[in-house]
Amino acid sequence: MLLTLLSLISEKLTPKPEKFTLGVSFSAKYARELGLDWQKTYLDILEDLQIKNLRLPTYWDQLEPVKGKVNFQETDYLLDQAQKHQAKVILAVGIKQPRWPECHIPTWVLELDHQTRQTHLLDFVAQVVERYKDHPALEYWQVENEPFVNFGEKCSTLDKDLLLKEVDLVRSKDPNHKIILTDSGEAFKLPITTMKYSDIYGTTLYRLVYAPIIGYFHHLYSPGFYTLKSLLTRVLYAPNNTKTIVVELQAEPWSPNPLIKTPLDTQIKLFPAEDLIKYLEFAKRTGFDSIYLWGVEWWYWMSQQGHPEYWQYVKKLISSNSL
């Protein structure tokens, strides 16, 4: 009861920005899983939706499938096209990155002992930072993705010491770009470590989710719950953290099975287009001025299934400058 009251007060007292930055997370790997031409999808995100803020991964298993042979061709393309279209990029590094299976680890790394695995990871992160630290499209680094959330395939929480080594490494290689650390906004705890050691804190925001034992359930938190968590943590533990963003706003259905294998009518029932509108309005009430939507690949795929309403809503929102 007290938490609910404080959350409501926090929401009422938090000033709302006059303008919001709207971005999307994009994964070429996920686009392929949906059977999409990832390059065409990406270009349409930039040209048709006219997205100017992106969060992109650097999957270790994809960039270094063979030990010592790193191929940056795809990531080069993504950042170069972002630059060409005057878009800015949050570039994620590390083992845990956006999209299933969460931990994107090369097969050859699985055979290594813990210490050797860490050494190779830090070397890979260093290579990514060195390559892109001066890229004009780069805006922020994101180090790991929800490192303390126990979720994913063969993927547990990340060792805090390793996370801090990665953060220190990125800072030493590139002191000119701020670092984002992310955590579950729905967790009933303060994100102390992720805020304390980052410049910017990225919270998730999900409304309808699925858990194996419970099934589907709605998070009942108010927007002020997210605001209050951020405010308390910053004041008590992380005064050097400059801002909070919604790094991942649910904008696609949460299904226990891959969406490509989920019946279309079930997907629409789980996430009708009206929910995209409602969730975005909900997120804006937190007072955080940057919101990155999760699901742009799915909107594109849905357009090909005869349901363009998700894509068209975001397109209209951006073109009308009505954020």
Automatic annotation (TrEMBL):
Keywords: Glycosidase, Hydrolase. One of its GO terms (biological process) is polysaccharide catabolic process. The keyword Hydrolase applies. The keyword Hydrolase applies. InterPro entries: GH, Glyco_hydro_5. Residues 39-184 form the Glycoside hydrolase family domain. One of its GO terms (molecular function) is hydrolase activity, hydrolyzing O-glycosyl compounds. Pfam families: Cellulase. It comes from the Bacteria. Belongs to the glycosyl hydrolase 5 (cellulase A) family. This is Glycoside hydrolase family 5 domain-containing protein. It comes from Candidatus Daviesbacteria bacterium RIFCSPLOWO2_01_FULL_40_24.
